[in-house]
Amino acid sequence: MSDMTVRRKKRPKNLDLTTIKLPLPGVLSIIHRITGAWLFLLLPVFLWLFEKSLASPESFAYVKGLGDHFIVRLILLGFIWFYIQHFLAGLRYMLIDLHKGVELEAARFSTKVVFAASTVMMVVIGAFIL
């Protein structure tokens, strides 16, 4: 048994996240996970605000007053971008699950389309919110 030693190849390990260079689809994957986590974690806050806005005319005025602040509108705009980005990336991943756009060039192109479309949609929606 001792004659059968297993030789393991020493592989370099880079655990410094600041020096790792991910390809664009990898960046989209991480952003998709982050936006999904934030949308999930903030769902109770949005449900509470929705419930409060339906409770009475006074509570509706309170919630509407919150929305009049510029900072709150910026935060809302950020979370709308989270939703748009997560939705479009989810559509991209659904197409990949259907074996559409799996090739390297198609994957890179679809990633660029997701980033461009979410940015354009955010600018359009932002014009109405701000």
Describe, in plain words, how this protein is organized in 3D:
By secondary structure, the chain is an all-alpha fold. It has one domain: Fumarate reductase/succinate dehydrogenase, transmembrane subunit (3 helical TM bundles of succinate and fumarate reductases), CATH 1.20.1300. The protein is 74% helix and 0% strand. The protein has helices spanning 24-55, 57-66, 70-97, 104-129. α1 (24-55) packs antiparallel against α2. The longest helix is centred in the N-terminal third of the chain and has 32 residues, at 24-55. The N and C termini lie far apart (72 Å). The model has no long low-confidence stretch (mean pLDDT 90).
What is the strand and helix layout of this fold?
Blueprint: H1 24-55, H2 57-66, H3 70-97, H4 104-129
Helix pairs in contact: 1-2, 1-3, 3-4
Order of helices and strands: HHHH
Shape: elongated
CATH topology: 3 helical TM bundles of succinate and fumarate reductases
Structural class: mainly alpha
Sheet with most strands: none
Cα separation of the termini? 72 Å
**Helicity level, as a percent range?**
over 70%
Which CATH-level-2 architecture? Up-down Bundle
- CATH domain class name: Mainly Alpha
Number of domains: 1
Radius of gyration: 22 Å
